[in-house]
Design goal:
The chain is mainly β. It is built from one helix and 22 strands. The strands form six sheets. Strands 4-6-11-8-9 form a five-stranded mixed β-sheet, with no helix packed on it. Strands 17, 18, 19, 21 and 22 form a five-stranded antiparallel β-sheet that branches.
């Protein structure tokens, strides 16, 4: 604690409010990794000289838990404010290393819906402002990598992706951070190797000071954890049919650059169910232009640079992805506004 504040150089904090809170039973079940930070000075009381704040950190790879038995919060000045700040700083300085929940397999949905009491942390729900991390071992010759996040509709999530290092908001090159539960990131011709996916629960509990105390609002259910699922999918770079040698180099747009309308032209060597999806340069899904089952031959669809809700988009780079059965192709388009 003295690494942060000197507390008047007497190592004593006076008049901290206490309401018969707990204290560690040091002679009974005291884990060796526990540190006592402060002790009560209340002669005649049961908690006199017992621990009033203490911490636990299992090892260097785990986070630090800080517990305080009294109430230094809500103080706006003086040593009691320093006491509260020192507790928070010591907890933050004890953050552990990020841990990977598991590896995402091609096309396999990973459902994160377990409660902490289920003792299955690899599939547990996510808490407010918490990150979950996953890895992808991406093979060579992949023409598109897509990450789909589907969260509980009552909460907001963020999705991040980064090559060779953990994906956080501050470090991830690819991000989808628009408000809402569902996100998609899509990369064209990604590098093979180890990719990291970060899922963040953006929703958090809000506190408001009332005359009778603090009121907790804004989705307190997040404190019990929020369920979601995440899926990684990719397809080989080869666009040749298993039954035909004909290439599926079939998609292009004209004009390119365009403003604000472009024609998406493609050729199907055989009848297929077709879907066309537009993504922005961050990999976020903009609009789906699903066409359904189509016969072989030449086809086209027009896109007017608008989202699904009709809102006009800003100029920039967009990607069009065509999927037709086992075939897929993604092209780059420039909207010159």
């Amino acid at each position: 604690m003295l690494d942060y504040y000197d507390f008047g150089e007497d190592m004593y904090i006076a008049n901290v409010y206490h309401n018969l809170g707990p204290y560690p039973r040091e002679q009974l079940d005291y884990p060796v990794q526990t540190e006592i930070l402060t002790r009560f000075d209340h002669p005649g009381a049961a908690h006199h000289e017992k621990g009033s704040s203490w911490t636990y950190k299992d090892d260097s790879s785990t986070g630090r838990i800080v517990v305080v038995a009294s109430h230094p919060e809500s103080v706006t000045s003086g040593e009691r404010l320093q006491f509260m700040k020192a507790l928070l700083r010591y907890a933050l300085d004890g953050l552990g290393s990020p841990v990977v929940k598991g590896s995402l397999e091609n096309g396999s949905e990973r459902v994160m819906d377990k409660f902490s009491g289920d003792n299955d942390p690899a599939f547990t729900r996510i808490g407010d402002r918490q990150y979950h991390h996953f890895t992808i071992d991406l093979p060579t010759n992949v023409n598109n990598l897509a990450i789909d996040l589907n969260g509980n509709n009552a909460y907001s999530f963020n999705l991040y992706m980064q090559k060779n290092e953990f994906a956080f908001e501050s470090t991830a090159e690819w991000q989808s951070i628009t408000a809402g539960p569902d996100h998609t990131l899509s990369l064209t011709n990604p590098e093979s190797g180890l990719w990291y996916v970060g899922v963040e629960c953006e929703s958090t509990v809000q506190t408001t000071l009332q005359s009778w105390g603090y009121e907790y609002t804004n989705g307190t259910g997040v404190l019990n954890g929020v369920s979601y699922s995440v899926t990684a999918s990719w397809k080989p770079l080869s666009l040749k049919s298993a039954s035909q040698s004909e290439s599926m180099d079939m998609l292009y747009n004209h004009p390119n650059p365009f403003n604000p309308t472009t024609r998406l032209l493609y050729t199907l060597p055989e009848s297929r169910d077709v879907s066309i999806t537009i993504y922005n340069c961050a990999g976020g899904k903009v609009v789906s232009l699903d066409k359904g089952f189509q016969p072989s031959g030449k086809h086209e669809v027009t896109w007017n640079a608008r989202q699904a809700n009709g809102q006009q988009l800003a100029g920039g780079i967009y990607f069009c992805r065509l999927e037709a059965g086992q075939y897929s192709q993604t092209i780059k388009m420039v909207y010159s506004k």
